[in-house]
Specification:
The chain contains 8 helices and 8 strands; from the N terminus they run βαβααβααββααβββα. The chain has 227 residues and is an alpha/beta fold. It has a single domain, classed as 3-Layer(aba) Sandwich (Rossmann fold). The longest helix has 13 residues. The N and C termini lie close together (11 Å).
Length: 227
């Protein structure tokens, strides 16, 4: 059986202040996609509203704009995948072995409130499939509850973009909330690397999370290993 991965991207193109654009952090998708593709997995891209996923401008600049991101950006077929994402109501969770939430600050706005993404995550998780995220992608797990009403992340080891990294990236005044703090409020056992911006990924059963953009490959490799 070919394994199938559902990659989640944002539909949001700016912070609360429209003068500050944001969007999908491209390499977080491309690094993971490359790992999954190399294993022969089938992949689909979903977003909270379906349709277009805008790109975070900072992800298209050195050093974030690496070969993986450049190759995708230059490929019309790949870019078309980000113009025409499916919506959660078009997704049958039974078709997928894992869900992978990508990041970029934009996801802080549209991932948490998506009941469709919560449903898919809950259904995949409860039948033993893998729920995973990288960087701000963990915002997609903030409000996801299991069938018993408990938070999916409660009592589980989780990582994601740290508040220290928000400060160092100089966006701590722009972001709508402190994602690390919100995770802890929901009972997650939040972890981070000793140094900011180094690759760090955590596995807790069938929950796999990565801390920052540089963690996308490692996170995807851990997902692939479990599959």
């Amino acid at each position: 059986m070919t394994r199938r991965i559902l990659n989640v991207v944002t539909n949001v193109g700016h912070y609360d202040d429209p003068d500050h654009p944001t969007g999908l952090w491209l390499s977080e998708l491309t690094h993971a996609w490359h790992v999954f593709e190399g294993r022969g997995f089938e992949q689909v891209i979903v977003s909270p509203a379906g349709g277009k996923s805008p790109l975070e401008p900072r992800s298209l600049k050195f050093p974030n704009y690496d070969k993986s991101a450049k190759d995708w950006h230059a490929d019309p077929e790949r870019m078309a995948l980000l113009e025409n994402t499916v919506s959660p109501d078009q997704v049958d969770s039974a078709d997928f072995d894992a869900i992978f939430f990508t990041g970029g600050h934009a996801v802080m706005y549209d991932f948490p409130g998506s009941e469709g993404l919560q449903r898919i995550s809950r259904e995949i998780f409860e039948r033993g499939g893998i729920v995973s995220s990288v960087c701000h992608g963990y915002c997609g797990l903030l409000d996801t509850k299991l069938s018993d009403g408990s938070y999916l992340v409660a009592g589980r080891k989780v990582t994601g973009f740290a508040w220290q990294e928000e400060v160092l990236a100089r966006v701590n005044k722009l972001v709508p909330y402190n994602a690390e703090e919100e995770m802890k409020k929901r009972g997650a056992l939040y972890e981070k690397a000793k140094l900011p911006f180094v690759s760090y990924a955590v596995v807790d059963g069938n929950l796999v999370t990565g801390q920052n953009p540089g963690s996308a490959k490692e996170t995807a490799e851990k997902v692939a290993a479990l599959l």
